[in-house]
Design brief:
By secondary structure, this protein is an alpha+beta fold. The chain folds into two domains: 2-54, no CATH class; 66-256, Carbonic Anhydrase II, CATH 3.10.200. The chain is 19% helix and 35% strand. The chain is built from six helices and 16 strands. Strands 2, 3, 4, 5, 6, 7, 10, 11, 12, 13, 14, 15 and 16 form a 13-stranded mixed sheet that branches. Strand 13 and strand 14 form a beta hairpin. Helix 1 (2-13) crosses helix 2 (20-32). It starts with a helix and ends with a strand. The relative contact order is 0.21. The structure holds zinc ion. Zinc ion is lined by residues 119, 121, 138, 207.
C-alpha cells in the first residue's frame, strides 16, 4: 500500500506514463481512502487519496490553526455537564479514542451538544502564538441537528503524572482496531478540562479526513498537565499524529473574557 501511495504522489508531481498495474493499485487505495500523518499518505496528500477528501485542500476554513491576535469578546461560556462513564477505548490506527455517548454533554446558551468521543494528538495540532504543546485532547460533540462542536485542550508535559490520564493510559489497546471495554474503570471528561475555563473560539473543520467544515472550535486557553513519561507512553504508539496548522484566511478568533 505504501508503494501505491508513493506512486500516486509521484504521479501527482511529475507526469509519469500510466502503467496499468499501477493504475489498479492506485485505484484500490483511493477507494479505501487510506490516510496517515507521514510520507505519501500524509496531510499534504489527503486531498489526492479520495474525492471525499477534496475539501482538505480546497476548504478555506480548515483546522488546526495558529491562535494569534484573538479579539476579546463577550462570549457565552460553555457549560460542561459531563458524567462518569465506563471506559471504552479503541486504537483507531490514528489515535486512541474513548467512546463518549454515555458521558454527558455541553451547553452553549440554550443549545445542547452531546459528547460523542474524545481522542488525543501528539504534538498539539493548534498552536498558541506560534507555540505547539506536547499533546492536544479533542472532545467531539454533536448537536441535535448534527452540528459539530469540538473542545481542544492543550496538554503540557511536566513532572507529575496526571491521574485521570493515567487511568486511560493503563488500558491503551496495543493493536489497531482493538477495543477495550474496561468494566471497573470509570472516566469523566470533566477531569480532563483545565480548572480555568477561559477559551478561544473560531470556526473551523475536522483535523482529519474528510476535513469537514462547519465545526465550532472551543480551544481552552490554559493547558492541563501530564508527565513527560505519559507523553512518552503515547509517543511509543503515535509519535506524530497531528495535521500541520492551516491558513487562517481572514477568520476572526475570539477570546472569552475570563
Ligand atoms: Zn482530533
Amino acid at each position: 500500500m505504501r508503494t501505491c501511495s508513493k506512486w500516486l504522489a509521484g504521479c501527482a508531481l511529475t507526469v509519469l506514463p500510466l502503467i496499468l498495474a499501477a493504475v489498479s493499485c492506485t485505484y484500490a487505495e483511493r477507494a479505501a481512502g487510506l490516510w496517515g500523518y507521514e510520507g505519501t499518505i500524509g496531510p499534504e496528500y489527503w486531498a489526492l487519496l479520495s474525492q471525499e477528501y477534496e475539501i482538505c485542500r480546497t476548504g478555506k476554513a480548515q483546522s488546526p490553526i495558529d491562535i494569534t491576535k484573538a479579539v476579546p469578546s463577550r462570549l457565552a461560556h460553555p457549560r460542561f455537564v459531563y458524567r462518569s462513564m465506563l471506559l471504552r477505548i479503541r486504537n483507531t490506527g490514528h489515535t486512541f479514542q474513548i467512546a463518549g455517548d454515555t458521558g454527558g454533554f455541553m451547553e452553549i446558551g440554550t443549545s445542547r451538544y452531546d459528547l460523542v468521543e474524545f481522542h488525543f494528538h501528539r504534538p498539539s495540532g493548534h498552536a498558541l502564538h506560534g507555540r505547539a504543546y506536547d499533546m492536544e485532547l479533542h472532545l467531539v460533540h454533536r448537536g441535535k441537528d448534527g452540528e459539530r462542536v469540538v473542545v481542544g485542550v492543550f496538554m503540557e508535559g511536566d513532572e507529575e503524572d496526571n491521574t485521570s490520564i493515567q487511568k486511560i493510559w493503563e488500558h491503551l489497546p496495543a493493536d489497531e482496531g482493538e477495543q477495550h471495554l474496561v468494566e471497573q474503570i470509570m472516566v469523566n471528561a470533566e477531569d480532563l478540562l483545565p480548572s480555568n475555563r477561559a477559551f478561544y473560539y473560531y470556526p473551523g473543520s475536522l483535523t482529519t479526513p474528510p476535513c469537514t467544515q462547519g465545526v465550532s472550535w472551543y480551544v481552552m486557553t490554559h493547558p492541563i498537565r501530564v508527565s513527560e513519561e505519559q507523553v512518552a507512553r503515547f509517543s511509543s504508539f503515535y509519535r506524530v499524529n497531528k495535521r500541520p496548522v492551516q491558513e487562517r484566511n481572514g477568520r476572526v478568533i475570539q477570546s472569552s473574557l475570563e
